[in-house]
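Lab notebook, bench 4. Still working through the backlog of constructs that have no structural model yet. Next entry is a single chain of 670 residues. Request: give me the structure tokens for it.
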Amino acid sequence: MSQRHIHKILIANRGEIASRIISTAKKMGISTVLPVTEDEAGSLPARQADEIFIFDTSNLSDTYLNAQKLIDVAIKHQADAIHPGYGFLSENAEFASAVEHAGLTWIGPAPLSVAQMGNKLEARKIAEKAGVRVTKALSGTIEEILNNQAKLHYPLLIKAAAGGGGKGMKIAQNGSELRSMLEDTSREALNYFGNATVFVEEYIENPRHIEVQVLGDQHGHILHLFERECSIQRRYQKIIEEAPSPFVKPELREKLTSDALKLCKEINYYNAGTVEFLVDDRGNHFFLEMNTRLQVEHPVTEAITGIDLVEEQIKTAMGLPLSFTNADVIMNGHAVETRIYAENALNDFSPEPGTINFIRWPEKRIARTDTFFDSSTEIQPHFDPMLAKITAWGHSREMAIKKLTASLEQTTILGVTTNLPYLREVLKTKAFNSGETTTQFTTLHKEALKRAIHPNGTDKTNLLLAGYLIWVLNFRDQNADNLFSRLGHRRWNGHYNVRFSEETFSLAVTKKMDKTLQWSVNGQPMDEIRLLSFEESGMKFIIRNQEQILSWYSLASGELMLGTGGYTYRLKPGFMLSAKSHLPESNPDAETDIVAPIPGKITSIPGHKGGTVEKGSPIVVLEAMKMENTLSAITGGVIEEILVSLNEQVKAGQLLARIQVPQLVQSHQK
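Model written out:
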């Protein structure tokens, strides 16, 4: 076949995968175009891309799910290829075909392969034809399935034929549950995938979810890059993946990889793909599905093979042959990946959108972090709540787990609830460390994990109060003549009042010696605190002979955010920001001018030109020294002009906005 050079790629995706693709494209000297919503125009991938296109809406149907729109943007920006990433339209055969019909290169498998594997029933038939074992199943109309259910053994797994990502999947334990579950799944399938067809298969209880990474070129060469285990899941979605599987021995590996390649050869598959299997406790494996795209968990395979899968995808799309064979691919060490989500593990993993005020990722020397933000950002409710993936490699599984655990300890995200504490507790369990990983893991250990991550308790409260006291003393000492005094922090005879968890605590320093504090809470002596360091990135101290690390961030509301163990806690001091303290008393225009009290960055502009405001209405939010300062109107009026833009760096004393006061206007006109 003829080779096609790629000069510019449009990435039909967002988030961390967009950043991942851009990284490899830059390495290959290929330009990138990234379509983004207005909310994400300042995101990390948007800043990394050579060009961006800003959608005029955030509706998915008009953005990342609008095939023609994406193709039009690619043509407008003179891109010659489209990389779909994962999710959205990455496994949409019609989109893949439309890309090729538009004269663009599709960075993925042939549209026919996407269609064949995209329909789960069709994929099962092809797998059987190729000699790959599948579970017993029934398909047809709901009535046909009900009439033939006696041919299968319960429990039964109900699936959408066009489905993926666990959407619509249900487990029927008996015949009385089957009809309603079939109807529910059919309805959900129609909503999610536009196809109401469902089928049922015998459910394998407590299996392992093991998948094989495949890679093929357009010259008939196909190979595997070993297996990954993805058994740790919640709501049928993976949260921890590793390569290789701790369960798979050489004999089983040979069977899994052989079957994966049989399936690929049956459909002349090329580019990257993943063949997924369920493996029972006896080592029997059954075909589950094939994903015709790059997987979220691809970093663990890259870590143990040293192969850049995105680079191979692009080269394959160009028509280049693979430059290596299976004999050249060597498995080196072990890698484990965790997916960090903005979700509440104590509330059935419900998504937790909101504002992230502060983040700290682990050191690059011990872990790889794939993410889409490196500073304060808004987590939108209409996108998947995944924030990042952290992957650690080691010479052994034990070492990889140890490094990953340390990486999660270093990671801090303040502002939204995340699953960080949950992930850390999973990594600590005896079952995980001994390789007892099945798809029922999170169910079997549900209560124990919940108890371990529950944030309440006296020790936790005292730790946070100690952190608050350290923040007060160090922040005040460093900024007594400038920002801190302006914020009006008040001290009452050496006591500091603070509210936490609906309680008010009175803190007092009883003795201070160099970096050692003796203190009390509500008059009760507490364990001595020895401060090790206090920086913008966090504080480190010893209490009860244990080293503690807390991250901190001050909000304009007067609250202090402290982060530890993956949780964000809010402590409300005995003071609030005073709007008047932001304006110089001597300024004759104090009531109409909004002035920056200190240097900083504009992080939000709630006001807009021509808008009517009342006294206390927020106009501009300024971030300085990790503190948000809301600059509000001191009087009612109309915003005459906003003189700054989002993310602009401003100087102390700089005029940011001006308010027109009706009375003043009338007096000038007389």
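Notes after review: Residues 479-493, 575-590, 664-670 have pLDDT under 50 and may be disordered. Residues 554 and 627 are 5 Å apart (CA to CA). Flag for follow-up if needed.
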